[in-house]
Amino acid sequence: MRFPVSSQLLSLALLASASTLVAQQDAPPVDVSQLLQALRGIKEQQTLQTKTARHKALQRVQASAASPAAAVGSWEEAVRETQFEGAAREGSQFKEWREREGEALKEKEAASAAQLHFKWMALTLQRANGATVKELLPQIIAHTKELAADTAAIEALDEDIRHEKETAGNSKRGKERKTNDEAVKRMHDQIIRAAVNGSAPAQVLKIGELINVEKWEMSAGNLDGIYNRIILPELRTSKDPRLLEYWDMRLKREAESASRSKLAFDQEKFNQVRRPELLWSRAQDLLILGQRNRAISEMFALVKAYPAHPRASEWVAAIEQALTPAAANAPLAPPDADAPLAPPPADK
Known about the structure:
There is one protein chain. The chain is mainly alpha-helical. It has 14 helices and no strands. The protein has helices at 5-24, 32-64, 68-84, 90-106, 108-128, 133-166, 172-176, 181-193, 200-205, 223-237, 243-261, 264-288, 292-305, 312-323.
């Protein structure tokens, strides 16, 4: 039986009106306290799952950090999984990589970088899981000492590279190597500079989002970053005299670097510009340690000795401010040895 067109249109209009009415009707009131309690339970479950995931990852990372050989094996496997697994000709392509970059990875300098990377990844996981900087500080400082030794080794490798170039690769060291030193240095630098939340091992472990830590350094090889973001703020908070050890170490390191360049320009720049800046930062930390008189005396000596320094006017203003009575109780800003240089004064 067919209905007239007008009846069909009327039915459709009634259905549409009913649907609109239903859509406009709200659901029954929610139980706010019950929902909030359920949400708290979900958040607690998420926190527990995240901590468990970090703990499992930590166990694997610590196993990889146990020795240079373990670190090399884990790094190589991570490269295979992230760059070759599932690709066409996976076996042959990975074999080619092992015969090329893989040989460089096995050399002691690159293996050391891989182990340091996993050690720093482990410390980052512990920090992300709630350990305080104060609790981790001995391990962090131990890492910086290992990193300093690694830096010295790679600087020695740089010297060997220069020497090999001068002797056209005829050195005994060059003949004994399975691979060339430049490839080893490239592999070392690639690993030591990699962020522990974005490297191939981090991708395999799926921990990128699990170790996003505020006020932390993500690169295992950034010595000054580790000090400036983590160690120095902790030492300043506790007024630890080891603050001065950092500046003494940095003065020595940068002096040696300027000396190695054998360029008069670099040595002059260090002696006249960079060294005074580092000494100024050291004096600022003397203020934080409560040695106000010694700090001001050293600051004044710097201004007197280097009146043409690009930051001399800034330093004079800082000394004047430090000498005011109100400055004795004012909060002190931490020094920044890496602040950009002020422009030189314009000629009159």
